[in-house]
Amino acid sequence: MFSYSMEYGIPLKTLTAQETARKFDFEWLCRYPRPSTVSSDNGKQFVFNEFAELLQSYGIHHHTVPAFQPSSNGLVERINLTIGNALRLNSNQPITNLLIQSISWSIRATSHRVLNCSPSEMVFGSHMLEARLINDKDKVLKVAQEKKKKQSSYDIERQNDKRIDFKFEIGKKVFIKSNNPNKLENRFNGPYLIKSILRNNTVQVDMGTHPQILNIRKQKPLHEPEKKEKKAECRKVHPGPANPGRHTKPLFTK
């Protein structure tokens, strides 16, 4: 579990809804201001009653990312990858809470390439490597927001260059990308009908048994042939010979 602003990690012993709710309550909600929204994947530890009831009691909105779309929760996935790489470098040591906190400290103290500052500088206005304060914290935050917005616009433009121009609309059909297919399985399943258009490049697709929310990156549009109206064709009737059994002129002349 991570915070987007502080990059504060909370290690979990077991992936249960009860353990997740308890850790989130004790480690975050009892120490820091409550967030307005919590984003998570569709794991059982986040969608079961214990965690849902905790968020409801604090008045926190729970937002789940589309299924099989890790990039929708990219910051958390990137930090998990960084922690995993650091743990592999220390594979000769047992994984303890002290080791995880040491790795988390290095993440908070490292300057971010896009933000041009470390998470601790942006949130608390002070350096973690030396005891000095930042004179103008608002200026640092403003520069970080501008650089983040510029990088986000660049990433969106770069991704849109490779996309096919297609407008997702209710009633159209799409193919859904298969998850980890083998060599003989189809790479896409469907087509399925689009039921509704949601925000953040997601649509609700009718999968037969139940509707599912998926990102457009997991979909391939079905290009149906345009239906053309059949125009009534008038056939010209040529008048035949008076006696259909005989020709008025011989076929061959001498």
UniProtKB/TrEMBL annotation:
It comes from the Eukaryota. GO terms for biological process: DNA integration. Residues 1-127 form the Integrase catalytic domain. Residues 217-254 are annotated as: Disordered. GO terms for molecular function: nucleic acid binding. Gene3D superfamilies: Ribonuclease H-like superfamily/Ribonuclease H. One of its GO terms (cellular component) is nucleus. InterPro entries: Integrase_cat-core, Retrovirus_Pol_polyprotein, RNaseH-like_sf, RNaseH_sf. Residues 221-236 have a biased composition (Basic and acidic residues). PANTHER family: PROTEIN CBG26694 (PTHR37984), PROTEIN NYNRIN-LIKE (PTHR37984:SF5). This is Integrase catalytic domain-containing protein.
